Each structure stands twice: as C-alpha cells, then as structure tokens.
DNA sequence: CTTTTTCGGTCAGCAAGATTGACACATTTT
DNA sequence: AAAATGTGTCAATCTTGCTGACCGAAAAAG
C-alpha cells in the first residue's frame, strides 16, 4: 500500500498528488467553493427579483463594455432566447444600454448604464470581501497556484475568452476578442 | 501609480495582488473554470436523461456510503422535496439503495448499488482526465495553492462538511460527520 | 406511558432559467 | 440580386429549484 504524504505538502515533485482520491477531493473542493463563492451575490439579487443569470450578464457587460450580443452569447454558452429573457428586462429597467455597431449596424453593442454600474459594483463588493479573505488567508503564492489550476480547467474556447478579458481589463474599452 | 508585478509571481509578500482587477479576474476564473469542469460529466448525463442534480447525489453518496438523507440534504443545500424528485428515480432505476439506520430505524442510509458505482466511475473518469490535465500542467505546488484558496472560499458549514469527506475518504465507511 | 420531536416521504402548485424549432427583419457580403 | 449574418421574438418544453401542507414511524422527553 502506498503511504499518504504527511500533512504539509511534500516539497519535491512527486506523483502521489495525482492519486484518485486527490482528484475526487478536487471535485468536492470545486463544488463547495463555487457554491459559497456565489452565495453573497445571490442574496443581493434575490432582493431585486433577479437571479444568477442577470448577474452574469451584468458582470460580463461590465468586464467588456461595448461587447456584441454574439460574443456575450459565446461567453455565457446559452441560446439567444435564454439571453433575451434576461437581457430584455435589464434593458427595460435601465441597467443595460444598447448602441448600434460602429461599422456593422446590425450589431447591438452592450454597455452598463450608471445604474447598471452601481449594481455591478454592489454585487462585486459582496464577492470581493469573500475572495479577498480566501486570498489573504492563502497568500500570494497560493493565489498564483489557484490561478494556474483554474486556468487549466478551462477549455480552449474559454481560455481564449478569458484572455480577452484579461488583456483588455483596466484599459479603455478596446475591441472585444478576435470575433470575425 | 503602482507597478504590476512581472509575469512570474513576486517572491516576496506584497499587496498588489489584492487589487480590484485581480479580484474581478478571480470571478472570471471561477466562472469559466467551473463551467468547463462540469461539461464532461454533463455530456454523459445527457445521454442517460439525467442532470447535474443526479450527478451530485451519485457523487456524494459515493463519497460517503451509508450517508443519511438529512446529511445529504445539508450538503446539497436543497429541500427534501427537491432531493426526492432526483433520488426517487435513482432508487427505482437501481443506482441507489436504501437501508434502515443501525441504531435509529427512522433513518434511511444511502448506498450506491453496483450499477450506481459503475455510473459514478464513468462520471468520475470524465472529470478525472480534465482535472488531471490541469493539475499536471500546474504542478504540485500550484495544486496546493489551488486547494488552499478553494478551501478559503467555503463558508464554515461547507468547510466542516468537506473535512468530513476528507477525513473519511479512503477508509472503510465510518459514521458520517458529527451529526447529532 | 403519553406527548412531542425528529427523520423521512409525498402531494400539489409555482418560478427561474435553460432548451428547441420556426420565423422575421435589417444589414452585410458575395 | 441572392445568400449569409446578427439580432429579436413567439411558443412549447424540461430540469431543478421553491413553498406549504400533511403523514407515518420511531425516538426522545415528560
């Protein structure tokens, strides 16, 4: 029978961490971690009669102002009918604004209104505290490891989308992704 | 203006990694990572006319054989009506088996049948490959960081539940958690 | 021993958020 | 002029949650 490593992780590279049990633990970790990560924002959304779907739209429109409907659909990986049911109310209630594409007038570029930005911030703050605590407790090196693994869990498409957000974040609303 | 650290994480402890942008990136990371993590199992479930809810039941019954319905409800954080609608078919279709509690006969302890274990394994294999790749690419140290952060993202309840699974995993079906 | 509480199941109705298929319209591309 | 693209919309359906009400068996409390 192989021995388990002692409680602090072994310094040297080894293969024990790939054992089946470690991978099942990863499943648990992702389930519980993701669930509680979203809980804070969910409570706020509840009070507004919104759900996670609304949050995702607000989040990603906030992350990529001027994003095209088609690109948002690709990120959310849902149908346009599903998006429509969430996006339409957000527009009617003044959280999201549409503007025609600059070169292609069929496009509807999406932006947050001032109200939308305020809500985005409120939702962000709820999760910010939570993630901040986890990051602080774990330390910068662990955070870097976390990022690497999460990035590795993405498929090629998601990775491209993520890198699009990563690149443009903090800059002045550039063209989004490599679409067409 | 503060400088960003160079691409490899800075050796020394610093506070830059707590900036707002880093935390928004964490949101993206969790969204994309979790989404693609579940995708493999989802495809299998689709073919069986099951959904993620079924997977969660199979997973956690497999993780803690002999788990009580009440403890499973606490882990899944859903109502017993919601669980019933998923659990009942799983029992009828022979994936899950119930047995009366050893000391308390009101309890129904849940186990996977041989069929259930086969399905659990099939679902596990799908995610195993995916997580394995991410773990391998990131390396053992990053994996340890990932674990720390994910653990930090859990609330106190989830942490206790997770530790219960962690403790008992690999051992011969001990009593589950600290219930009552 | 009686009462109350707990564990689990079940019925009925409702809502959110996803799906598919079909179709419409304006615009861009060929 | 025709085809393809970007977006919107109608209608029906499915999964997975929810609430409220109620039941039965067994355990715990009195």
Tell me briefly what this model is.
Two copies of one chain form a homodimer. With 180 residues, the first copy, chain A, is mainly alpha-helical. In chain A, 63% of the residues lie in helices and 7% in strands.
List unreliable stretches of 5+ residues of chain A.
Answer: 1-14, 172-180
Assembly context of the chains: homodimer
Pattern of helices and strands of chain A:
HHEHHEEHHH
Structural domain count of chain A = 1
N-end to C-end Cα span of chain A: 55 Å
Global morphology of chain A: globular
Beta percentage of chain A is 5-15%
Strand order of the largest sheet of chain A: 1-3-2
Question: What is the CATH fold-level name of chain A?
Answer: Arc Repressor Mutant, subunit A
Mean pLDDT of chain A: 87
The chain-level structural class of chain A is mainly alpha
Number of helices of chain A: 7
How much helical structure, as a percent, in the residues of chain A?
Answer: 55-70%
Described by strand count, sense and barrel closure, the largest sheet of chain A is:
3 strands, antiparallel
- Annotation, overall tally of beta strands of chain A: 3
CATH class of chain A: Mainly Alpha
CATH architecture of chain A: Orthogonal Bundle
Descriptive account of the structure:
Two copies of one chain form a homodimer. Chain A has 180 residues and is mainly α. Mean pLDDT of chain A is 87; it is low at 1-14 and 172-180. Chain A has one domain (22-168): Winged helix-like DNA-binding domain superfamily/Winged helix DNA-binding domain (Arc Repressor Mutant, subunit A). Chain A has helices at 20-47, 52-63, 69-76, 80-92, 114-138, 140-153, 156-168; strands spanning 67-68, 96-100, 108-112. Chain A is built from seven helices and three strands. Chain A has a three-stranded antiparallel beta sheet. At the A-B interface, helix 1, helix 2, helix 5, helix 6 and helix 7 of A face helix 1, helix 2, helix 5, helix 6 and helix 7 of B.
């Amino acid at each position: 029978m192989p021995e388990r490593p002692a409680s602090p992780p072994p310094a040297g590279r080894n293969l024990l961490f790939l054992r089946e049990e470690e991978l099942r633990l990863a499943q648990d970790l992702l389930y519980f971690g993701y669930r509680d990560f979203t809980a804070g924002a969910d409570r706020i959304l509840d009070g507004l009669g919104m759900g996670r779907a609304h949050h995702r739209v607000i989040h990603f429109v906030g992350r990529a102002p001027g994003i095209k409907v088609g690109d948002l659909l690709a990120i959310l990986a849902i149908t346009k009918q599903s998006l429509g049911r969430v996006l339409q109310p957000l527009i009617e209630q003044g959280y999201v604004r549409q503007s025609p594409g600059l070169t292609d007038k069929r496009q509807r570029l999406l932006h947050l209104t001032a109200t939308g930005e305020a809500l985005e911030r409120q939702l962000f703050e709820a999760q910010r505290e939570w993630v901040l605590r986890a990051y602080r407790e774990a330390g910068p090196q662990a955070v870097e490891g976390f990022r690497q693994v999460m990035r590795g869990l993405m498929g090629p498409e998601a990775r491209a989308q993520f890198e699009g957000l990563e690149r443009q974040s903090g800059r002045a609303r550039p063209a989004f992704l490599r679409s067409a």
